[in-house]
Amino acid sequence: MAASAWLEAGLARVLFYPTLLYTVFRGRVRGPAHRDWYHRIDHTVLLGALPLKNMTRRLVLDENVRGVITMNEEYETRFLCNTSKGS
C-alpha cells in the first residue's frame, strides 16, 4: 500500500508542470479553446487556478485581491507563486 501511495505522489509531481503549461496555454488562446484563469463568484470571492507571480499586480490592482487560500501541495507553489514573505 505504501509503495502505491509513493508512486501516485511521484506521478502527480511528474505530471504537474506539463498540465500547468497546458492550462496556461488554454488561458492565452482565443476562441473555443480559451479557458479563463479565474471567475468572480461575488464581490468578495474569486475562484480559479493557482495565482502565478506574473498575475499578482493585476489581481491586486484590478480585482482587489487581499488574500489567497490554496489547497495545492508545497511543490506546486514553491517557485510559481508569491508567498506571505513577498518572495
Automatic annotation (TrEMBL):
Gene3D superfamilies: Protein tyrosine phosphatase superfamily. It comes from Mus musculus (Mouse). It comes from the Eukaryota. GO terms for molecular function: phosphoprotein phosphatase activity. This is Protein tyrosine phosphatase, mitochondrial 1.
